[in-house]
Amino acid sequence: MREPIALPLDQPELTADLGGGLVRRTVHPSGLRVLTERMPGARSASIGFWIGVGSRDEQAERPDAPGSLGSTHFLEHLLFKGTPTRDAFSIATEFDRIGAEHNALTAKEYTCYHAKVRDADLEVAVTMLSDMVANSVLDADEFETERGVILEELAMAADDLADVANERFFEAVLGEHPLGRPIGGWPETITEARRADVDRHYRDRYDPSTLVVTAAGAVDHDRLVAQVLAALNASPEERWHTDGAAAPVRREQVVDASPAGAEAPGRASLDSPLEREPRVRITERPSEQVNLLIGTHGFSAGDPRRFAYGIMNSVLGGGMSSRLFQEIREKRGLAYTAYSFGASYSDSGVFAMYAGTAPEKAADVIELSRVELRRLADTEISGEELERALGQIAGSTALALEDSDTRMGRLARAELGSGELFDLDASLERFAAVTPEHIREVAATLAARPLTVVAVGEASRSSLESSD
């Protein structure tokens, strides 16, 4: 079986063939890591500046220490708003001048600032992203402006009942675990956020040891490394200079980077019990449908059962031929869409089944979802279902890897997370090794856990009753 590429933190240089793309990696003495994948024939490149800190690493305020809830997402906005040499309009116009697709994202375990550009403009993207990440001034006026923008973003999400259901589901399943918090924060935490606390979060968490730069497409590795180092060393912020020595940081080490005296945010609630009693959580909203999520906590990103878990999700709710789609939509017409998914993190995860349906049909959809999960847990799937799931996974993965954004993200998630980089063949070999019994065992593990039901909409028109 083809082995993944190992990414040890103590190996300064690495070169490998990743399914036709040349992968190179440099671990700089400063802790900075740069990974590239050259894609033959490409005339563009995707580049990301990834900080291994996400919303789960924020700290609630205590009497003896300031809090930082919402700071990670706040920074995602503020880093576009100005540096000592560029204001917000200059940043926008310089990206537009080269036709870049640029944006940022905040996740529960990392933050990324990224751009996709012509190969000839990659150095411009490096200069811009380096300046934003290393030299943001977090201007006080811009801070207040972005407070309003973020509150509007949260309000927009609050109008999307599927988004509301997703947030409520994470809260219900994970409880006080840091992963249970919404990535963007709550309106009250954004309203109360202080610039000094966000600035402290920025200075404590952003430095070369937590930075991973990845690029895929038409990219020269040595040139990119030189460009990134030059840009960081030009920073007026001494913490970004790369002439010192520091150990690079992975997810399991992020807690050790906490400010002195601060609670280790990534581990703070890991001892809290995740096994919970079955519950129904209802959020009443005027709507024509009830958005339903039925599930429990799932598997971590490094769990050895993750390949069986992926196939199980494909069979249960991964496409139009899946069991949930066929039973709920095609046979009974109870919903427009029905699917299942898993979200996996370094030490935990969630599993859920989703459907949007009329309030009067909600109880039937919930029961059908439970029945289909139980059926997977009790009976091995057929060979035809397994073959179809393997084909779906192989095809969708291969198609995704045609895009340089996907390959750029794959490099970063391997580096920040497991330290193992799988090419397509290595992944597919592991999926192919999964048996129907492996899938049944994964489904049985999930079915044995207490299932939480989250309903958002006019649930009062249904027969559902909240257990909270």
Automatic annotation (TrEMBL):
One of its GO terms (molecular function) is metal ion binding. It comes from the Bacteria. This is Predicted Zn-dependent peptidase. PANTHER family: METALLOPROTEASE, MITOCHONDRIAL-PROCESSING PEPTIDASE SUBUNIT ALPHA. InterPro entries: Metalloenz_LuxS/M16 (IPR011249), MPP/UQCRC_Complex (IPR050361), Pept_M16_N (IPR011765), Peptidase_M16_C (IPR007863). Belongs to the peptidase M16 family. Transmembrane segments: none annotated. Residues 195-390 form the Peptidase M16 C-terminal domain. SUPFAM superfamilies: LuxS/MPP-like metallohydrolase.
